[in-house]
Amino acid sequence: MTEGQARLIAEAERRLGPKGVVTDPKEIEPWTTDWRGRVHGSTPAILAPSSTEEVAEIVRLAAEHRVPLVPQGGNTGMAAGATPPADGSALLLSMRRMNRIRSISADDRLAVAEAGVVLAMLHEAAHEIGMRFPLTLGARGSCTIGGLASTNAGGTQVLKFGTMRSLVAGIEAVLPDGSVYDGLSGLKKDNRGYSLDQLLIGAEGTLGVISAVALRLLPAIAGRAVAWAGIESPARALHLLRFLEARTSSIEGFELVPEDSLRLVLTHIPNTRAPLSGEHKWHVLVEATTADFSHDIGSELERLLGEALQDAIIDDAVIAASEAQARAFWKLRDSISEAERTEGQTLAHDISVSVADMPRFLVEASADVERRFPGVAASGFGHLGDGNIHFHVRAGNHAAPDWYEREGAEITRFVDDLVTAAGGSISAEHGIGQLKRAELARLASPARVHALRAIKHALDPLGIMNPGKLVP
User: Fold this and answer.
1) How far is CA 32 from each of CA 22, 43, 223, rounded to the nearest angstrom?
2) pLDDT tens track for 63-74
3) CATH number of the domain at 344-430, out of 2.170.190.11, 3.40.50.980, 3.30.70.2740, 3.30.450.150?
């Protein structure tokens, strides 16, 4: 522990009280490793403020003592963006005690939630007033609003509603000098220069600490229909999406799942079963919703899928007969990463290319990787409709303690080169964090790298905000 850290911890203990500082190594340890268990950090303390004022006090002290801070929410990120450095040079700034929904209004269609509010908690609060927050993902029971904004999270409803960036009406944040930026007004029109809200969204805590977020709400759905279809190829899946979109505006979720990913879930996740009989090379999970109580969304989706079956776009399909079955279908999709982690070592590439190019990319890139690295298994799943696929490579018979550092690094470079050649992005929704920082430096244009560094230096000249993340 450095002298500056010791002073900061002592002052934080006096000002935040016993709940505001954690120094017990056993309590700290679970929060120093990323979700996948690949990156391990170290820190002498976790600072846990309960208000924006306390966050500001901590950041002012950190600037005074030159102590780096690593903001952390639910620690569910996939790029190790909330993991402290291994040398113990930074303190963790946990936002989990800031878990209040300050306001929620059906009239304004806005909710103001503190950074530590868990996504599922916001969903419940919105439901109670007849509204909804239209962003969800597999980690909704533990991911936090601050983390979702800091990483510009996407999820399964981006197709219709966009990423977190589209759903944020305003940000409150503590800047690196300890000053508080308050942008929570939710104004639809505000042209006072640079958008600090949008700058902070997706910044991964490198430009300040998001303390609260104003979020756009929508009327609660009156009904939904969820279907599972077997399909021949990703090209057919995109054909199905365009077929549905041409006939209805109700499609909200459209998830592509390869057969090998489904088999992993059925093998490793309890209480799961295949929706369809027989094997299909690919699967599509479709969700349609309506806010109109007179709209029979189930009958509409059933009719459209029947037409798609007659036109040989799909091979088979089933409509969820109950809410429980709909949740079971979504569990299959949401459990893929967990099943892969149980199976063994997996390299997760969160990539995007243009929607039109994605079917070809999926097939060709998987074949290219398996040909270049015989014995591994490559496949992609996820949000075909917005061009974001989670392209994963499983170690297979190459598994070894050093596989990530040895062959894994070479595989990632190979995949990232394929993505870049296709005009895509090596980070679609999970951020850059630690894991993709070197690749961003290698592949990004000089203009992008220069702008990132210039913005970082301008707002955080001391370099105390989430060091070693995002900015090359």
Assistant:
1) 13, 7, 42
2) 999 999 999 999
3) 3.30.70.2740
